[in-house]
Structure formats: structure tokens, C-alpha cells
Design a protein that fits this description.
481 residues; alpha+beta; Thrombin, subunit H; six-stranded antiparallel beta barrel; 11 helices
Length: 481
């Protein structure tokens, strides 16, 4: 088990054999403590990260979920503000080793293999349907980046301006062909409103659900019409420096578009849950609820806030789309009582924010900026330490590789020298055996007053040949590696 998993279990407060149900229940308990102010916001971010990391791991590993026998009410938090996050995890494939002695013939395997291949294709398609996103959001995803004009032309028909009685104007965007529209909770002060499209078409909209903790609201158009939805991107893949476009109706200037970059991907706001994307694309009153779109025309965030001050410029925020994706995909209709309670909580939160003294608001903004700078400073320090550690590791690796190469070269050299010495000793030994054989033969000839290399009796010649073979075998035995 890697260190990240161990750390995530420690943050959530669970043992390493916990399942998805245990992770969800522990996360809900910790979330309630966060709402009660018992856990600092910095620690809450770690809790959110640990929750998502564990869910991704457990679902990828197909860990059995012991919550299947529980009712939805048993797993739902009282405030219903923390729906389970849907994650996309790759299918884990495992192969089974078959003993070669038990394998059937290739002819008998053809039909089963064909059937198995078809089953695998069906399983992959089912897995994609289960773990993937709704078809209407990914079926026609564009390939590659688009220029700004093409992006605006693509997304403009899906942007709406929302008029909510006398409460003011906000923005929204279509996410479903049936007319479901996403906006901010603080835009929807009432259960009904009017949505205006770029082609001039107007329709009444009704509030479907509202989550004041994430400043998210889902509404639905009443007019029977085929609507053009925007594709949802993956906010987890956003990176600092990515180009984005913010759309909406700032100061009643309908269907305005501003361009900028992502300044940070994981900010936190004291009065809001979830991850926040910071951007320098201009966001102003009326932009609330509009989409933040990447260069592929996909929604990665929902615009909701900017910091305004004489000394502040280009600091806007958007809700990460992954944090509200479950709401968009489920499209669950809240009851009138639930809507009234959620709207009352949203109104109370807005009143508390508007009643805060200007100095306190400015201090909160300054504190948020200082915290962001401090996080950036710590992140840079951590990156520098990681880079230094990587350099040290690389240097150590190169030293070890050089040492191993030198040792291998030295061993090879010694082996060559030993082989050459053995070959020379063997050659000398064989030559000595041959010389001894010839000398003995000639010596016998001389004793019998004959010339060298004379003919010997058969038994004498056989004896000398036998001794020569023995000496040669001894040479090979002694000088073998």
C-alpha cells in the first residue's frame, strides 16, 4: 500500500481495510464537524482530497461496498449538502494463468475465444456506460483546441440570461436537451424565473434543486423545445496557465465573453464548500452562474465571485464543475419543503455577508489573498525541495550506475585475463605432453641403435599412445574454467 493511501486513511480516521461505505460515512461525519466550525478550513481541504482519493482507489479496485443493503436515507447526511462524487476509474483487468498441460487444442479454442472477445467488448461498453459521463455531454466532444471565435460561436446558443423578479439578473447555461440549466444559488432568490437565449427566445424556468453550500442551483425550462447543451469538462485536469473564457451577462450586458487564464486550480472560500478555480478572466455582477469554458468548449467551472478593491485586479473565482457534476447528472427534484429550507439558508447566508462591516469584508478579502500567497509560497518551496531531492537521487543513481559499469568492466577484464591464462596454460601443457611423447619414442629408438621416429613394437607404441592420452586429459582437467 502506497504512502498516499495510508495518509488518506489516517485523515479520514479509518483502518486500511475500510470499504466505500465506511469512507462515505466517515466523510459525512467530518463534514458535519466542518459545518459546525470544529475543523479548520485548511484541514477540510485535506479531508476532501482524502475522500476523493480513496473513492477513486476503492472503485478502481472493485472493493465490495457493504452499503448495498442500506437504504438511501441511512447514507444521506441531514443537510444533504454532500452528495457522493462520481469518479471515473479505469477497469482493472486480470488474466488467469493456465497450465500448459491442460490447454485444449487451437481448433477447440477458436469458438470460445471468439465468444470471450465479444463478451469483453460488451463488458467494456457497459463499463464505459457505467463509469462514464452522460451521453449528451460527451458524445460529440471536440478534438483539439479551438480559437476564441469558434468557442464563442459554439457555446453562445447554450448561454442564458436569468431574470428573477426584482432580485436582479444572473447567468446560466444549458446542460441537457430537455432544458435543464445550471446557475448559482444566490441568483435564484425565487422558485421561478425567466431565461432568455441569445436568439431572443424566452421561457419560464422552475427551480429543481439548490445547494447553498456550493452556491449551485439547477433549474428547468418549461417550454417544450430541443435545447443545445454545453459539454462538461474535467476540472481535475485544469492546470495553471490554461486559457479559459467566462460567459454571462455582466451589468445586464447580455451574452458577454471575457478571456483569461487559470491562476490556480484549488482555492478555498470560507463560506463555500468544494474546490474553487481562480481566473483572471473578467467576472462582474451578472456573470454569476455563467460557465467558465476551456479551449475545447467544455465547461470546467461556474462563475460566482470576484474580489473587488482598489488594490485588487484580475481575481475571479469559479466553482469546479466536478464538485457539482453529481447534481447535474442525477437531476433530482427537491420537494417544496426542501427548496424552501435551502432558499432560507441561502437568504440567511447572503444577509450575513451583506451585513458584515466593510472593514471586516476587506480584512476577509485581504486574509484570503494572504492565505493564497502563503499557499503559493509553500507550494514553491515544496517544489524546490522536491526538485533538489530529485537532483540528489539522480546524482546518486548516476554514481551507482557508473560504479556498476566500472565493476562490470573490471570483472570482464579479469575474466578475459583468466581465460587467456587458462588457454596459455592448456596450450603449454598439451605441448609438453606431445614433447614428452616424442622424446620417449625417440629415446627408445636410440637405445635400440635406430634413428628417431623409428617403428616401435605394437605393444610399446600402444603404451606410449595411452600415456599421451592420459597426459592430455589431465591438461584439460587442470586448466578447465
Amino acid at each position: 500500500m502506497d504512502t498516499n493511501l495510508i495518509r488518506c486513511y489516517q485523515i479520514i480516521g479509518l483502518s486500511e481495510d475500510a470499504g466505500i461505505e465506511d469512507v462515505e460515512l466517515s466523510y459525512q461525519r467530518l463534514t458535519q464537524k466542518i459545518h459546525q466550525g470544529l475543523i479548520p478550513w485548511d484541514q477540510s481541504k485535506e479531508i476532501l482530497w482524502a475522500h476523493d482519493y480513496l473513492l477513486n482507489f476503492l472503485k478502481a479496485e472493485h472493493v465490495p461496498d457493504r452499503s448495498e443493503g442500506l437504504s438511501p436515507e441511512a447514507l444521506r447526511s441531514p443537510s444533504q449538502t454532500d452528495p457522493p462524487r462520481q469518479t471515473i476509474s479505469p477497469d482493472a483487468t486480470r488474466s488467469r494463468v493456465v497450465d500448459s498441460s491442460d490447454r485444449p487444442s487451437s481448433r477447440s479454442l477458436r469458438l470460445p475465444l471468439l465468444i470471450a472477445t465479444l463478451l469483453i467488448l460488451v463488458a467494456l461498453a457497459a463499463g464505459l456506460a457505467y463509469f462514464g459521463r452522460p451521453f449528451v455531454m460527451i458524445a460529440s466532444a471536440p478534438k483539439g483546441d479551438l480559437d476564441s471565435a469558434s468557442i464563442i460561436k459554439r457555446i453562445k446558443p447554450s448561454i442564458v440570461t436569468i431574470h428573477v423578479g426584482s432580485s436582479g439578473t444572473g447567468s446560466g447555461f444549458v446542460v441537457d436537451k430537455q432544458g435543464y440549466i445550471v446557475t448559482n444559488a444566490h441568483v435564484m432568490r425565487e422558485k421561478t424565473a425567466t431565461a432568455i437565449f441569445s436568439d431572443g427566445f424566452q421561457t419560464d424556468v422552475n427551480l429543481v434543486m439548490l445547494d447553498e453550500q456550493r452556491d449551485f442551483a439547477l433549474i428547468k425550462a418549461t417550454a417544450n423545445r430541443i435545447y443545445e447543451p454545453l459539454r462538461l469538462g474535467d476540472s481535475a485536469r485544469c492546470a495553471e496557465g490554461d486559457t479559459v473564457i467566462a460567459a454571462g451577462a455582466p451589468f445586464n450586458l447580455d451574452f458577454s465573453f471575457t478571456k483569461g487564464i487559470i491562476s490556480s486550480t484549488r482555492r478555498t472560500v470560507p463560506f463555500l464548500q468544494g474546490e474553487i478555480i481562480q481566473t483572471d478572466a473578467a467576472i462582474n455582477p451578472g456573470n454569476s452562474g455563467g460557465p467558465l469554458v476551456n479551449t475545447r468548449g467544455e465547461v470546467v467551472g461556474i462563475n460566482f465571485l470576484k474580489l473587488a478593491n482598489v488594490a485588487i485586479e484580475g481575481i475571479g473565482f469559479a466553482i469546479a464543475i466536478n464538485d457539482v457534476r453529481p447534481y447535474i447528472e442525477k437531476k433530482a427534484q427537491m420537494s417544496d419543503a426542501e427548496l424552501n429550507q435551502a432558499m432560507a439558508r441561502e437568504t440567511k447566508k447572503l444577509e450575513e455577508l451583506t451585513q458584515m462591516p466593510t472593514d471586516e469584508i476587506n480584512r476577509m478579502k485581504d486574509r484570503a489573498i494572504e492565505e493564497q500567497w502563503e499557499r503559493e509560497r509553500r507550494r514553491r518551496e515544496l517544489n524546490e525541495k522536491v526538485e533538489a531531492a530529485n537532483r540528489d537521487i539522480q546524482e546518486q543513481k548516476e554514481k551507482i550506475e557508473r560504479r556498476l559499469q566500472d565493476e562490470a568492466a573490471e570483472r570482464k577484464k579479469r575474466s578475459q585475463e583468466m581465460a587467456e591464462a587458462r588457454n596459455k596454460a592448456l596450450s603449454d601443457c598439451l605441448q609438453n605432453a606431445t614433447n614428452q611423447y616424442q622424446w620417449t619414442w625417440n629415446d627408445y629408438c636410440r637405445k635400440n641403435n635406430q634413428q628417431d621416429s623409428c617403428s616401435l613394437p605394437y605393444n610399446m607404441a600402444s603404451l606410449l599412445e595411452q600415456r599421451l592420452g592420459q597426459m592430455r586429459n589431465e591438461c584439460y582437467r587442470v586448466n578447465s574454467p
